[in-house]
Amino acid sequence: MKAIKENKVYTITTAEEAKAYRARGFDIYDDKGKLKESGTGKSVSLEKYEALEKENAKLKKELAKLKEEIPKE
Predict the structure, then answer these.
(1) Residues 10-49, buried b or exposed e (16+ Cβ, 10 A)?
(2) What's the predicted TM-score (pTM) here?
């Protein structure tokens, strides 16, 4: 797992470490890079963040499709 906050990245191995870093505002990511827990003190809930991330991916795909439809000069 990794604890990430701003430009700081720490590799963690135990649940206690994850809990301590999370309390200091670090986001906890699993080994595949997926957000596992959001750090405390965040103004956006994890559920809302995931919904926005999903919507962003959908909109990026839609944008790429629309760009392909534009005739090239």
Answers:
(1) eebeeeebbeebbeeebbbbeeeeeeebbbeeeeeeeeee
(2) 0.60
